[in-house]
Amino acid sequence: MTDFADALSRAIEGDVSFDDYTRHLYSRDASMYAITPRGVVAPRHAGDVAAAVALAAEHDVAVLPRGAGTSLAGQTVGDALVLDFSRYMSTILDLDPEARTARVQPGVVQDQLNRAAGAHGLMFGPDTSTSNRATLGGMIGNNSAGSGSVRYGMTIDHVRTLDVVLSDATTAHLAPVDQAERARRAEASTLEGRLYRDLPALVEEQRGAIASGFPGFWRRSGGYRLDRLAAATETFDLATFVVGSEGTLVVATEATVGLVPKPKHTVIAVGHFRSTAAAIAATEDALSCDPAAVELMDRTILDLSRERIEYAALGEILQDDPDALLFVSFTGDDAAELAGQLDRLVALWERHGHGYHTLRAETAAQQGALLKVRKSGLGLLMAASQGSNRPLAFVEDTAVDPARLAEYTERFAKVLDRHGLRAGFYGHCSVGCLHIRPFVDLSRPDEVQRMRAVAEEIRDLVTEFGGVNSSEHGDGLARSEFNRELFGDELYAAMRQVKGIFDPGNRLNPGKIVDAPAMTDNLRDPALPPAPPLRTALDFTVVAGGQSGMRGAADRCMNIGLCRKSDAGVMCPSYMATRREHDSTRGRANALVKALSAPDPRVGLTDAGLHDALDLCLMCKACKSECPLSVDMATLKSEAMHQAHQVEGTPLRSRVFAGIRGLNRLGAATAPLSNLPGRVPALRALLGRTLGIAPKRPLPVFARRTLPRWFRKRNTVGGDRGPLTFLADSFTSFTEPAVGMAAIELLERAGWDVRLEDSGCCGRAAFSKGLLDQAARQASGLVDALAGTSGPIAGVEPSCLLTLRDEHRALLGDDPRVADVAGRARLVDDLLVEAIDSGALHLREDAWPAGRRILFHGHCHQKAEVGTATTVALLRRIPGAEVVELDAGCCGMAGSFGFEAEHYDVSMQIGEDRLFPAVRAEPDSTIVAATGVSCRQQIAHGTTRRAHHPVELIRAALAEPGTNAPPTNGTVAR
Predict the structure, then answer these.
(1) pLDDT digits over 430-472, tens only?
(2) Which of 154, 147, 138, 111 is nearest to 240 (CA)?
(3) Dist. CA 954–CA 840, nearest whole Å
(4) What is the CA 862 to chain-centroid distance, rounded?
């Protein structure tokens, strides 16, 4: 492949990658399959695509176009050259509000298009649950649909024209043409001419098979759509014909798609039911009210949502303990009319005895928690995986007439029961499609055979009901094998002829739709060799998926790609900056699986390819909470670095940052001299040369009056609430003591008898650099000091305080003292809210923060471990304050990451994604608040705005006359 890779590198402007790690990362998608590709190209334009297709033909290599790689049936894995359109070819080229069309490149993400179209009151009709990472190219290749298909149909109904590269590397513009134009084009002695010549002849020859072979149900994404050509007598439309062809006929480089008016209002009825069957039985009444969508969620999904912080709000609004929910959405421009539809549905359900409660969600605030869980059904179900026993997609895409859905589902459940399989039920009742995913362990040969038996029975069952085997997820490797049985010999033969007409050399994504391998070939789990033994410093039994060790924790990833979202949440900040697969949580997890499968995993963990994937991980922990499978990349990276240090030694800079507490203590003791490197260019340059510190990054300012020194010299105030230990972290103690002072004064005023714990570091800094032996010693020392205390252990720096609840468990194993300390560790914010609400603390209406707008940015570790709701509630206790919590992702600083010269640009790019623009957009009167010291440093550097810790604002609201002014000590904005 070296000659091929060299030829590609010379011919195209995009990225060419043939290294083992990149190939491994693209060997998987969200399906149960894995096939290593020959190489990967990220094209920059259509010329790159044509050149890649041409060179692939010269070197006898197939081509596989790929978007986000979230396909569930294996469409986007293969022994081919992968063309990744998601990195560069992701531009909205034109948006015409009057014509209601958009011209897009294939890498444009659905939500990206909807944001642009929404500015004109428009949207793209198909609404997939993966809209925050699904690309338009992938949706076209798959003929995706989504929850609103009962109203808006499928992607095929919205494609107007396509620019494509054909299998011979020539280009074509596909659009509807009349018969005269078709005949004119058919005269060309080109591959495009052959399409206009041979396809009409094939349709005429096979009209009988086309009429009888296709299922009668309209919602389908399997096979080639000869029925569309047969039905259109006056026009000939190749653009829609190739929709759903999974990259086997053409490679799309540009698309013009139709847009629809975006409804101004949405209301949702959420029916509560005692069984899944009862919910499905209520669908007919719902459909009679002309809904935009009817979605089912069963107890399996509901129970899983209750276990996750980010879905906690759902449990607060549900009535009792339902076994199933039915979400019925109504959309339109007339709010009163929608309310009437809602009333009608509620009345029908009551009259017919459907359900025991109906929740009405008529505002965006009421709908937020509902929609978040509804769109996360796949991820939540995947979270129930135990090792290689996973809920698999192989019978999850069938659809039947909704009128027969109840009977069909009952028969389906009996098939599963007969084979001893459990499954989660969710999906689109409005169109008769339920995504039923049985739990199967494919590492066991008998389970593989059981899966196949179920697939065959369900194929026959859906055929009996006149339904479709592939209704929106496509055929891929999971279902293509069954197309002959589903469509009949004659129609299947015609589909094989279609493939031959478009792709005579079988170059484009071979083995999908026609001439496919057995569905049990190329399975991911059986192909993975047993994990070689590896002695880890961390206890992975406390990490999701880690019961079988470090590789199990990494292999928990099922590639659904939520880490590739780019407009909300925190995960994954580096991917948001680079749009590179290696920099997603998914990419890193797959890279670790490869390294940990090496004959000697210790050597594998030193591989440069793995380092490349892990390098930009900020260890923000967002994946631990936002990834539905809780892949804990921060812990995995720490162990990987530790193992590499054992083989290669520990870099000086890592040792320095790991010892940050000692460094900060020394800096404070020698201040102000220690602050000179931040001001003297020669000294700053020396730091850059010796430690690789970014020259543009402001250094922290050491405080001569440290928190421990202040605490020892003051008169402590005993309280009646009992003892409380305040954790003097390495930053609050020596660089931002004002934050700790404010917190302690507030706690004492609230009645706590505060003791300061400043004996040592929590180990967080050493953990982040992979110095796990040092981190364990520090953690053990701190636990020794805290174990003998009573009462809460409070702190103001989330990354340090929450280390007691998370990293210490992995570092110190089953030490019972760890659980005791973790159970008492609380952010100060929690205690202050309780004190204010109990009347122990009173905030003044004339304090300087009162009546102000406060823009709050939460720390990533706080979001991942405990959430930010309490901090927001604390800020809202300030009289008259308008508190706005930013959804701005990670700030990009991530402790030492933003100080490191090679990471500085990415750090700032992450800040520029959402955080910096949001802060800059605020008037000077707005107060900026952030709980993390790194966040406050980054905001100051990136925006020149001072960010306050929330406790400083609460202390100011409690301040006596004469001190009612903004705090000035602490972070210095430069």
Answers:
(1) 999 999 999 999 999 999 999 999 999 999 999 999 999 999 9
(2) 154
(3) 13
(4) 18
Q: 328: Cβ–Cβ under 8 A, 6 or more apart, which residues? A: 268, 269, 270, 271, 286, 289, 291, 293, 294, 295, 345
In whole angstroms, what is the distance from residue 422 CA to residue 440 CA?
A: 9
Can you tell me the distance from the alpha carbon of 128 to that of 108, in angstroms, rounded to the nearest whole number?
Answer: 14
Contact 164, 250 (CB under 8 A): yes
CA gap 387, 370 in Å, rounded: 29
Question: What residue has token string 């080229």?
Answer: 93
Contact 155, 143 (CB under 8 A): yes
Q: What distance in Å separates the CA atoms of residue 210 and residue 487, rounded to the nearest whole number?
A: 9
Residue in the structure block whose two tokens are 């091929």:
4
- In the Cβ-directed half-sphere of 42, how many Cα atoms lie within 13 Å? 17
d(CA 322, CA 356): 9
Dihedral sign for Cα atoms in the order 333, 337, 339, 345: negative
CA dihedral 174, 179, 181, 182 (to 10 degrees): 50
| The amino acid at 75 | Q
Residue pLDDT, tens place only, 567-601: 888 999 999 999 999 999 999 999 999 999 999 99
Burial class (CB in 10 A: 0-12, 13-18, 19+), 788: exposed
Kindly state the tokens that stand for 317. 């609004």
Query: Which residue in this structure is represented by tokens 């309490």?
Result: 870
- In the DSSP assignment, the letter for residue 703 is P
Pairing of strands 92-96, 101-104: antiparallel
Strand partners, 269: 328, 360
- State residue 361 phi and psi, 5-degree precision: -115, 100
Task: Yes or no: say if 124 and 117 are a contact pair by the CB < 8 Å rule.
Answer: yes
Task: Tally Cβ neighbours within 10 Å of residue 352.
Answer: 12
| Cα 854 from Cα 911, distance rounded (Å) | 19
Point out which residues pair with 295 in neighbouring strands.
327, 428
Q: What is the pLDDT of residues 662-682, one digit of tens each?
A: 999 999 999 999 999 988 999
CA dihedral 388, 391, 395, 396 (to 10 degrees): -150
Q: What stretch of H or E contains 910?
A: helix 904-913
Using CA atoms, how far apart are residues 824 and 447, in angstroms rounded to an integer? 45
Per the CB < 8 A criterion, the answer to whether 911 and 872 are in contact is no
The percent helix, strand, coil of the chain (3-state, each to 5) is: 45, 15, 40
Task: Tell me the C-alpha distance between 890 and 913, whole Å.
Answer: 9
Q: Quick one: which H or E segment has residue 724?
A: strand 722-727
Residue 51 carries which side chain, given as an amino acid letter? Answer: A
Pairwise CA distance, residues 491 & 494, whole Å: 5
Name the pTM for this structure.
Answer: 0.94
The four Cα atoms 786, 950, 769, 899 give a dihedral, to 10 degrees, of -150
Q: How many residues does the chain have?
A: 974
What are residue 476's DSSP bridge partners? none
> For the stretch 270-279, what's the b/e string if a residue is b when 16 or more beta carbons lie within 10 angstroms of its beta carbon?
bbbbeebebb
Query: Can you tell me the distance from the alpha carbon of 827 to that of 583, in angstroms, rounded to the nearest whole number?
Result: 31
Main-chain phi, psi angles of 29, to 5 degrees: -135, -160
Q: How far apart are CA 686 and CA 387, in angstroms?
A: 49
